[in-house]
Amino acid sequence: MSGIVCSLTFIGMVFLADSLRSVHGILSVLEGGALYRQWQALASLIGLFLLGYAAFALLHWPRQSTVADVVVSMIFLAGGVFVWSVARLSFRTTRDVVRIAALERELTLDPLTGVFNRRFLDVKLEEEVFRARASGRSLSILIIDLDSFKRVNDTHGHMTGDLVLKHVGQVIAGVNGADRTVIRYGGEEFLVVAPGADEKAIEALANRIRQEIENRPLCLEDGGRITVTASFGGSTLNPDETVRDLLERADRALYDAKRNGRNQVCLSAA
Question: Is the whole model's pTM more than 0.85, yes or no?
Answer without folding.
Answer: no
